[in-house]
Amino acid sequence: MADTLVTTHSIWRWLVLVGLVAALVYGFSRSSDAAPLEKSTAQPFMFSLIMLDIQVLIGLFLWIAASGWDLDVFRAWIHPVGMLIALGVGHAVVGRAIKFGASSAYRTAAVGILVTLVIVAASIPRDAWF
Length: 130
Known about the structure:
It contains 4 helices and no strands. It has helices spanning 2-29, 43-65, 73-100, 105-123. 23% of the residues are buried.
């Protein structure tokens, strides 16, 4: 079962990265005269964060099932804590942008996704990239 979770975690990672980049492009491509950001127009942001939620959940299952705390320091602590921070930042900023609701909120949400993407990329172990 652990091997299946590792494979799923490895494949889903790429989908999460693509989803975050797509949400980033969506947010920065919206013009300042676009309709205000609301739940119906925030779907790309929310979808990418739900993908990240699933990835973090799979990672936490793996961490517990494989005694992740016994791994090297990066995989045991920096990777999971970094991903949890990225998840929190993404949800906080996008949630705040949706609550604010103005057309400039697209840019705010996109910046939140960008920060999330940077934290995610920095938290992925170097040998796991390829």
